[in-house]
UniProtKB/TrEMBL annotation:
The entry's keywords: Membrane, Transmembrane, Transmembrane helix
DUF202 domain ranges (all copies): 6-71
Main location: membrane
InterPro entries according to UniProt: DUF202
Provenance organism: Arthrobacter terricola
Location(s), subcellular: Endomembrane system
Pfam families with a match to the protein in the record: DUF202
Gene Ontology, cellular component aspect: endomembrane system
UniProt-recorded name of the protein: DUF202 domain-containing protein
Spans through the membrane: 43-62, 88-108
Membrane topology: Multi-pass membrane protein
Length: 111
């Protein structure tokens, strides 16, 4: 059993928040595959699959990152884990931005 390195368990809360974010992105992508085909055609299937694959990949990356940080924090020679580079947040932000552009295109086409 590992020692309690942070009484507030901040890394666990952050890891869970990232997991919820990735699962929400996955749910939105799957919903898009179901709802959008009558509106924008077969492109919606491709967009939904792309979003789903990206959400699952981000989920694995988030989990691996959490485990790496947890191991470093609980190790006997624990140093501070390196600061995040921001690539994960930038990837998710770009994906949500792209989904917003697609939503805007659908709204304009329906108007």
């Amino acid at each position: 059993m590992s020692t309690l390195f942070d009484p507030g368990l901040q890394p666990e809360r952050t890891g869970l928040a990232w997991q919820r974010t990735c699962l929400s992105f996955l749910a939105g992508s799957l919903a898009a595959m179901k709802v959008l085909p009558p509106l924008i055609g077969d492109w919606s299937i491709l967009l939904g699959l792309t979003g789903s694959v990206e959400a699952v990949a981000l989920l694995f990356i988030v989990r691996r990152r959490y485990l790496r940080h947890h191991h470093r924090l609980t190790a006997e020679t624990a140093g501070r884990p390196p600061l995040a580079s921001g690539k994960l947040a930038a990837t998710l932000a770009f994906s949500v931005f792209a989904a917003g552009i697609v939503s805007l295109a659908v709204a304009i086409r329906l108007a």
